[in-house]
């Protein structure tokens, strides 16, 4: 009896403290579901949704804004779980979750627009395998972005989704010379959200020591469609930010970047949150939005948005602050460098998952051998790039420039596939040849 009493007392000492409110659901979709069970909460939330819809169209009048904010205060005071909930990037209900998150922040302040809606409590734990993968694929004296592209092509999901975004970003809309940027961005987001990070971020942040590698890295996201405007004119950065913040997804990805890539001189990484991994993920999260950043040249790892600060007027400093978050950001620069630095390997790193052979890699020839549309027309059939195409990627060699032995090797590679995979491989290959090969 004495022992049980002591154990009971010990248990009471370590038990969590009582709070006036129950633990809030981490996910905003779940928080809204709990709210919908209560008729009063549901009515308040639906009213706030109407306010948010009106605010998205035009600035709310003073009286309407006051009524909406009063409704917001009442809702959050009775159901605080809606205020503290977060979302998960890339999850099936991400956009629904973000809609809830921003609905209860009806007229967010500038500070609130720089707070990430994403839950990063478990994200940094996976960084060791990502760093291990990036360092694992380093080859001294070789094009490391080529190796990253090859590794991606050998992993079925990476190879197929990469082929999807290449096609989406290079296909012209009927009757025009323009690509469909919306479809291009959507395909890029699918690639980055569904492919394991040791492959997707390896392709984005592969370290380069020469311009050939740098050009491959710069053109990874097919910038002629995803990054630049077709007319070549750069918009004002604040205008671009304003359009971004009208969309829940873009607003969320930008807030995530501004929070997780905030520079600081007080940490070793140069990041306020002292996590290069979180900064890289936040940067990658912007790709596929109107705020898509990219490398500005093939001779450095410097990045920028496709915008400038001309015409900013008295908001010049605000514009420069946004622009410099990409061009003069020590946190972002150090994070990109850290990605390919073998000295940052953890002592107990584990190699990345073994890639699976994929029949969907033939279109990857376009990217893995510098056959991107922006400069493929300058590559002759007798060039070194076409030779690499024949030797490194057997199923990219159905052309008269390839040796007969390599041509036979292609068929040997394809024969073990099922009939449907065989046909699909041929169709996708010839589509890629038609689109990309001069």
UniProtKB/TrEMBL annotation:
GO terms for cellular component: external side of plasma membrane; receptor complex. Residues 1-20 form the signal peptide. It is found in: Cell membrane. One of its GO terms (biological process) is cell surface receptor protein tyrosine kinase signaling pathway. It is a lipid-anchor; GPI-anchor. The keyword Cell membrane applies. SUPFAM superfamilies: GDNF receptor-like. One of its GO terms (molecular function) is signaling receptor activity. Its main location: membrane. Pfam families: GDNF. Gene3D superfamilies: GDNF binding domain. Residues 28-109, 145-225, 237-331 form the GDNF/GAS1 domain. Keywords: Cell membrane, Glycoprotein, GPI-anchor, Lipoprotein, Membrane, Receptor, Signal. Belongs to the GDNFR family. This is GDNF/GAS1 domain-containing protein. It comes from Periophthalmus magnuspinnatus. The lineage of its organism: Eukaryota, Metazoa, Chordata, Craniata, Vertebrata.
């Amino acid at each position: 009896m004495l022992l049980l009493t002591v154990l009971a007392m010990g248990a009471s000492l370590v038990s969590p403290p009582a709070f006036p409110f129950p633990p809030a659901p981490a996910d905003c979709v779940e928080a809204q579901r709990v709210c919908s069970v209560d008729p009063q909460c549901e009515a308040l939330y639906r009213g706030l949704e109407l306010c948010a819809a009106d605010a998205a169209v035009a600035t709310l009048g003073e009286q309407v804004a006051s009524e909406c904010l009063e409704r917001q205060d009442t809702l959050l005071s009775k159901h605080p779980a809606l205020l503290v909930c977060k979302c998960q990037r890339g999850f099936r209900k991400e956009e629904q979750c973000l809609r809830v998150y921003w609905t209860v922040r009806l007229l967010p302040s500038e500070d609130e627009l720089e707070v990430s809606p994403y839950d990063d409590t478990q994200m940094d734990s996976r960084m060791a395998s990502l760093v291990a993968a990036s360092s694992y694929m380093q080859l001294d004296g070789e094009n490391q972005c080529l190796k990253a592209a090859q590794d991606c092509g050998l992993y079925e999901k990476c190879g197929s989704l990469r082929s999807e975004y290449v096609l989406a970003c290079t296909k012209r809309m009927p009757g025009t010379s323009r690509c469909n940027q919306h479809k291009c961005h959507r395909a890029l987001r699918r690639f980055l959200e569904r492919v394991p990070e040791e492959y997707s971020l390896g392709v984005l942040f592969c370290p380069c020591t020469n311009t050939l590698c740098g050009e491959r890295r710069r053109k990874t996201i097919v910038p002629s469609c995803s990054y630049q405007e077709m007319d070549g004119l750069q918009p004002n950065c604040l205008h671009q930010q304003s359009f971004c913040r009208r969309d829940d997804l873009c607003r969320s990805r930008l807030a995530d970047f501004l929070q997780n890539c905030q520079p600081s001189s007080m940490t070793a990484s140069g990041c306020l949150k002292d996590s290069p991994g979180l900064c890289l993920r936040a940067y990658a999260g912007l790709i596929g939005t109107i705020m898509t950043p990219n490398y500005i040249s093939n001779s450095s790892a410097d990045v920028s948005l496709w915008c400038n600060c001309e015409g900013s007027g008295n908001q010049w400093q605000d514009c420069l602050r946004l622009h410099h978050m990409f061009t003069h950001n020590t946190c972002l620069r150090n994070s990109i460098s850290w990605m390919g630095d073998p000295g940052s390997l953890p002592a107990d790193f584990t190699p990345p998952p073994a890639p699976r052979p994929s029949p969907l890699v033939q279109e990857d020839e376009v990217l893995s051998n510098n056959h991107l549309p922006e400069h493929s027309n300058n590559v002759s059939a007798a060039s070194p790039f076409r030779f690499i195409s024949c030797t490194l990627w057997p199923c990219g060699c159905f052309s008269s420039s390839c040796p007969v032995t390599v041509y036979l090797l292609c068929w040997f590679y394809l024969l073990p596939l099922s009939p449907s995979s065989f046909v699909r491989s041929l169709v996708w290959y010839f589509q890629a040849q038609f689109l990309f090969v001069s």
